[in-house]
Design a protein that fits this description.
Belongs to the D-isomer specific 2-hydroxyacid dehydrogenase family. This protein has eleven helices and twelve strands. With about 325 residues, the protein is an alpha/beta fold. The model has no long low-confidence stretch (mean pLDDT about 95). Bound molecules: NADPH dihydro-nicotinamide-adenine-dinucleotide phosphate and (2R)-2,3-dihydroxypropanoic acid.
């Protein structure tokens, strides 16, 4: 027997890869209203679009707070974010309302770890500076001490937050000849033995590492973690890399550390705010490489993220098991 079901309303806050849109439009479960742009939905349009929705598919640039939840109203069953990070959502408020949350762990781990390695090498080996010198005529001849940087061979690498991505970074860095792999976080990880990872206090990691890579989640505890005191414990020839969230770093303190020689150089895929204003002091520094939050940006990864977020949304609407539900 065929049971009649009510078509549910879904708001999608941005153009997403067609793999995801196809799943939603062919599901027969929901009517999709889309903010049909590559640019973020303005706040008023978000509040309007979400009104009465049963499902919301959002991005990390959408702040999902009490106001949005209130605007959505009691129909809202599920929020599916096209990201593994969920620091843009007011989790306590979402929980209070019994709304389920889907996210995209694992499927972006390899792409993000790969980009982190690329950023680390680009920063430590001064690739952007070199490219610029080739173009602007600064390349006069081969010079023994010109554009020298730091290599991974024999180095000590520290990973702050040895989660899915942190571990994938560690696995990729080890074959470069890394001598010791240290990590810090809230708890020691049994899987760290695969990379001979040593669980150490943060201060030990900072004082002993040649490369410090941040891959933890942004939480109240990690917000501003990389501050003056943090950088002052690092070696003067150390390389700092952040591909987690911009707010983990105090950017004024990082600027000081980079300009005073407290640390050697920094590579950031994430900043505060995003985009970083083009006149930001960090962008004046040769020893700071800034990327526009492209950790997971491969065509296939973004397609799979869109598929997963669409399937999470549908499961949330239908009250079935989600492929990736955030348990909180
Ligand atoms: P996981 O949850 O697997 O890992 C997060 C890690 O953060 C955990 O190992 C956790 O360690 C650690 N952590 C939490 N609190 C602290 C703390 N106080 N101090 C140190 N470490 C802490 O997530 P993923 O690896 O999948 O993703 C990590 C983050 O990477 C995301 O939250 C997101 O912000 C960012 N990201 C950025 C991308 C980009 O494009 N640049 C792409 C994808 C993700 P413990 O278990 O010990 O608490
Ligand atoms: C995430 O998923 O949290 C990233 O920042 C973008 O892929």
């Amino acid at each position: 027997m065929h049971t009649a079901h009510k078509i549910m309303k879904v708001f999608v806050t941005r153009r997403i890869p067609q793999e995801g849109m196809k799943i939603l439009s062919q599901s027969g479960v929901c009517k999709v209203s889309l903010w049909d742009s590559d640019e973020p939905v303005p706040r008023e349009e978000l509040l309007k679009g979400v009104a009465g929705a049963h499902g919301l598919l959002c991005l990390l640039s959408d702040k999902i707070d009490t106001e949005v939840l209130h605007a959505a109203g009691p129909n809202l069953k599920v929020i599916s974010t096209l990201s593994v990070g969920f620091d843009h959502m007011a989790m306590d408020e979402i929980k209070k309302r019994g709304v389920r949350v889907g996210y995209t762990p694992d499927v972006l781990t390899d792409a993000t770890a790969e980009l982190t390695v690329a950023l680390l090498l680009a920063t430590a080996r001064r690739l952007p500076e070199g490219v610029l010198e080739v173009k602007n005529g600064g390349w006069s001849t081969w010079k023994p001490l010109w554009l020298c940087g730091y290599g991974l061979l024999g180095s000590t690498v520290g990973v702050i937050g040895l989660g899915r991505i942190g571990m994938a970074i560690a696995r990729r860095l080890k074959p470069f000849g890394v001598k010791r792999l240290l990590y810090s976080g809230r708890t020691a990880k049994s899987y760290a033995s695969d990379v001979e990872g040593e669980y150490v206090p943060l201060d030990t990691l900072l004082s002993e590492c040649d490369f410090v890579v941040v891959s933890c989640a942004l939480t109240p505890e990690t917000q501003g973690l990389c501050n003056k005191a943090f950088f002052s414990k690092m070696k003067n020839n150390a390389v700092f890399i952040n591909t987690s969230r911009g707010a983990v770093v105090n950017q004024e303190d990082l600027y000081q550390a980079l300009t005073t020689g407290q640390i050697a150089c920094a590579g950031l895929d994430v900043t505060t705010p995003e985009p970083l204003p083009t006149d930001h002091p960090l962008l004046t520094l040769k020893n700071c490489v800034v990327l526009p939050h492209i950790g997971s940006a491969t065509y296939s990864t973004r397609g799979i993220m869109a598929e997963l977020s669409a399937n999470n949304l549908l499961a949330g609407l239908q009250g079935t098991d989600m492929p990736s539900e955030l348990k909180f």
